[in-house]
Amino acid sequence: MIDEKQLWKERLIAYVAQVRRYGRYMFNDHLLIVLFIAVGAGAYVYKQWTDSLQQFPYAIVASIIFAFVLTSSGVRTLLKEADTVFLLPVERNMRPYFFRAGVYSFVVHMSICMMIAIALFPLHRTFSSQSFVLLCVVLFPLKGWNMLVQWKEDAFSQRSLFHRCIRFLLNVMAMYFFLVGAYAFVVTMAVIMMIVARYITRSVKNTPLKWDVLLEDETRRMQSFYRVVHLFVDVPHLRKTVKKRYWLSPLLRIVDRATKQAYTYLHVRTFVRSGEYLGIVTRLTVIGAIFIYTIPTGYVFFSLLFTYATALQLLPLFSHHRSHPMLALYPLTMTKRRQSVLGIWLIVFGMQTALFTMLSTFIVSLSAGTAVLIAEGLLCTLLIMYVKKKWKEAE
Q: Which segments cross the bilayer (predicted)?
């Protein structure tokens, strides 16, 4: 017989040990210094910005931010591929295992909610009359409701984007009515949420677990963690993902497919179709632009911060195909390979710098855009010089 409680304990201990082992490689002295400087500078800019505000739609902004955090409420099950075979016969006895998985996930999600609440505390203190402690208390039942509904849909029912959007809207309205003090509407939203939870619970009663969906979700989360770790150290468990992205196929036709440009074509194709580069670069650029737009006093800091983060995400591009044996058949030197990667970096940095420069110019002034352009140029130059130095040392 399988002891479900002991099984969860062993899985959790192994997972925590793995995170700690990789964490030692990730959070080295250099990264901690950069994080310390970034957090300190960001806190200073954030304080200057909040002190300068006279009016701010805090209730709307905070309700949307909290709704995003509350709606994302997946349960970490720590399942493995073999579980679909060995645990399937004892599915009815797995309730203690999944209960402990839910408790662990709830603690992790609430930790994130508390960090978001603490980050919004300066705005809350200035623009809201609600008690901050009461706000933190309200987040607990809301997170529990979201986790219950999402678990029932993921594990037993059909996952629906429409249902997720409905939960997001309910979270937005509940948080907004609470922040503005409309308690009658808060009670109404609580009743609606209870009805939704009751309906979903009854609709999936006596429905078997969807092991394939749970395993796919757990694999996706672990691969996301491995991709972050892969920025600092090689991860043997990392699986490469490829997305076709037909709408970007014309971009590949622009690249010369001649023999001398084989590495360029390979790396551009990898950048476009790999699930590890284009998406994260786009997200970082958009988030950086949002920060510059909403907190214009820190335009130089945010432009440099997100450019540096983009550079970290692009570093593994050079070694992406390192283990592929066919790469050794290319009749090209290592210099050609490095030049192709540097070319992609320059294009990405140039587009990002142009966006941040224009945004700073329109929002602040022409001198601000010039400052961003100069700072970005210096940072990109230093990064490329550093990478070239490391490549020479590796020869």
A: 30-46, 58-79, 99-120, 132-148, 168-196, 277-295, 340-363, 369-387
